[in-house]
Amino acid sequence: MKKLIITIFGSTGDLTSRKLLPALSKLFVEKQIPEETLIIALGRKEYDTDSYLKQMKHNSASDLDSDILKKLVKYLKLDITDLKQYKPLVDLIQEHKDSKTRELYYLAIGPELFPIVSTNINASSLVEMGNKNQSIIFEKPFGHDLKSAKEINEMLWSCFDEKQIYRIDHYLGKEMIQNIMMVRFANRIFEDIWHNRTIKNVKIIAKETDGVLGRAGYYDTSGALKDMVQSHLLQMLSLIAMDVPLSYFSEDVKNEKVQVLKHLSFDKDLMLCGQYDGYLEEDNIPNDSKTETFVFLKTFVNTPRFKGVPFYLMTGKKLDQKESVIIIEFEETNEQRKWDLPLSTNKLYIKIAPLDGVGLILNSKVPGLRDDVETVELEYCIACNAVGNMSEAYEKLLLDIHNHHKTLFTRWDEIEYAWHFIEQVDKDKKDPIKYKNFEALEEEILNMTGEKMK
Ligand code: BG6
C-alpha cells in the first residue's frame, strides 16, 4: 500500500477526538490503511504530541488507544489562518512523502474558515490542482445558507478540481443508510411497490437526547432545520424517493438524488418548531434566542413516482430517546378495508440508530384456536448479527476517501438544491414553542396531521 498522510485542520475539536482519531486507529489496527500512515494534527494550542494525545483521550467518548496513536500522530502548532506559518507543515509533508503518497487534507473546521484555509492550502502549494493523490475533505455544514454555500463552492473550484473534493455528510456512512439502495432495488417485494399507488406516507425521524453540548455558538446560528434537515434528513429522503439510477456509479446515483431535491415542496401550515426547556440557560445562548431545537415538517416529492405522498421529517434535541429511523407506511389492501378487524397497516422500518436493521410490520392470525389477529414484526437486526464487524460511519467514509470512492459524499448540486429548499422553509418558520418532553410535541403533531410519529 502507498504511504498515507492525513493532515487535520481543527484537530483540537470534538470531531477529531470523538470520531476521526478513533476511526483512523481502528482502520490502522485492521490494516485497512498503510503501515506508513502519518496523521498531522494542526492546532493553535501549545501542545507537544504527547500532551495533545492525552487531551484527546480525555475528550474522547471512546477508549482511544494512545500506544497506537503515538505511532501515527504528530501534533504541529500552527495558526491555520496565517499563510506565513505554513512552512513547517509543507516541510514536514515533503520529508515524509514520495511520488505515490496518498495525501488527505481534512478541514474539521467551521465553514467560515473554509475560504481562508483553502486559499492557504493552495498558496502554500500543499495541494496542486488536479493531483489525484491529493484530496481535500470538508465537514458539514457547507455554508449557512445558499449564498454562502455558493461562495464557498466557487472558491473551492478555483483552488481544487472537483475530483479532489469530498463533502462529508456522515449519515451517508451509516451502515443502514448505505443499505437503503440494496433494500429498495435488490428486493422484488419492495421495488415493485415503491411508489404513490402503494405507499401511504414516509416518516424520516432523527431524535436525540443530548442538548447542544459544547456547540452553542454554532448551533444557535443554525437550529435544527439547517443543522439536521438540510443535510442528514434530506439525504435520507433523496435515497428513499429517488428513481432507479442508470447505473450504481456515483454520478448516476447523484443525478437521481438531485431530481428528488429539485422537486420538493412543503406544507407551510403543517410545520412545528420547538425549543427545549433550558435551552436559553445553556452557556453562550442569548437569553432571547428563537432558535429551534426541534422541527417537524410535512413535505412532498413532486415526481411521478411519489406525487401526493407526504414525507414527514422530524428531528430534535433533548427528546425521549436517541433514535434515527425511516418508516414507510403502505396503503391498506381492499380486503383489509373490508374486513372489520383490528388490522394494522404494513410498515417497513429502516432502522439507523441505535441498532441498524430492518423491520416489517405484518398482520397475522394469533396461533391456536382463537380467531384473533395480531400485529407482528419481522426483524433483521444487522447490528446484533454483526458483532464486532459493524463499522462507524467515519471509518467507512475515511476508507472510501483513501480509495477514491465518491458515492458516499455529496456533490455540489445536492447541497445547492437542499439549501434552496431549506431557504423556502426558513422563510415560513414560526417562533418555536417550548417543550419539556417529547410527549407534548407528539400530541401536537397528532392533532395537526392525524399521524403518530412511530
Ligand atoms: C451533526 C449535527 O451533523 O449530527 C449534530 O451537527 C447532531 O447537531 C449530529 O447531534 C447527530 O449525529 P448522530 O450520528 O449522532 O445521529
Automatic annotation (TrEMBL):
Any matching Pfam family: G6PD_N
Binding site for NADP(+): 44, 79-80, 140
Enzyme class, broadest EC rank: oxidoreductase
Gene Ontology annotations of biological process type: glucose metabolic process; pentose-phosphate shunt, oxidative branch
Domain Glucose-6-phosphate dehydrogenase C-terminal: 181-437
GO cellular component: cytosol
Entry's EC annotation: 1.1.1.49
MF-aspect GO terms: glucose-6-phosphate dehydrogenase activity; NADP binding
Keyword Mitochondrion in record: no
Binding site for substrate: 170, 174, 208, 227, 317, 322
InterPro entries per record: G6P_DH, G6P_DH_AS, G6P_DH_C, G6P_DH_NAD-bd, NAD(P)-bd_dom_sf
Catalytic activity field: D-glucose 6-phosphate + NADP(+) = 6-phospho-D-glucono-1,5-lactone + NADPH + H(+)
Pathway assigned in UniProt: Carbohydrate degradation; pentose phosphate pathway; D-ribulose 5-phosphate from D-glucose 6-phosphate (oxidative stage): step 1/3
Active site: 232
Keywords attached to this entry: Carbohydrate metabolism, Glucose metabolism, NADP, Oxidoreductase
Residue ranges of domain Glucose-6-phosphate dehydrogenase NAD-binding in the record: 8-179
Free-text function comment from the UniProt entry: Catalyzes the oxidation of glucose 6-phosphate to 6-phosphogluconolactone.
UniProt family annotation: Belongs to the glucose-6-phosphate dehydrogenase family.
Name the UniProt record assigns to this protein: Glucose-6-phosphate 1-dehydrogenase
Organism of origin: Peloplasma aerotolerans
